[in-house]
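Phosphoribosylaminoimidazole-succinocarboxamide synthase structure dump, as promised
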Amino acid sequence: MTQQTQLYEGKAKIVYSTDDADILLTYFKDDATAFNAQKRGTIAGKGQINCAISRHLFQMLEAQGIPTHYIDCPSEREMRVKAVTIVPIEVIVRNRAAGSLCKQTGLALGTEIDPPIVEYCYKKDSLGDPLLTRDRLLLLQLATPEELDYIRQMSLDINRHLSAFFRECGIILVDFKLEFGRDRQNNLILADEISPDTCRLWKQDESDPQARILDKDRFRQDLGNVESAYEQVLERVLGQAK
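structure tokens r here:
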């Protein structure tokens, strides 16, 4: 399969068409952004690491009955995926309080959330990806009521599988972002990626609030050792995936 026209370039990936209309090629970049792209930088090897982590997690979720866009990886930075139309909703699942949830509610960092909560943001950079209620999602016709119910349940199922997997890796899954797309048959399937770019991940055996961070918060907060943190996540994922 040959690489064709560039269709889209985002903050972390470039998407190309292929000679098969039902298959796209995603290239994972080393670029890093935060705060709606107000902060920019590069994390050496990030594209290769995130591609590998996403590959293993998509394969794990597929084995658990979760439909994803993943097909295979022809190279270390490239992933072949099913062509989908992305639903412009970022779904956030929270197991512990962190980030914007702490700022907006006053909850202490790390407060356990049981049961987990599911939040929705409008995937629109010009508006700053605002947090939306279910009624606002329906008002904007971003999804049908049935699709929102399905997305919520699938997100909670994904959270259950990912939390258990990361727990075996010695990692706490604090929260994470998901994106879904409609395939050619109009089925909703998991898309985008699952990586330290899209998840908050803490070492289980580390109490220091900075040393425990294994995700993009190290970049956001200028904590250093970003590449090392990503590499640690990959090593633990590969070790558990065997």
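The domain at 85-225 is CATH 3.30.470.20 (D-amino Acid Aminotransferase; Chain A, domain 1).
lmk if u need the other ones
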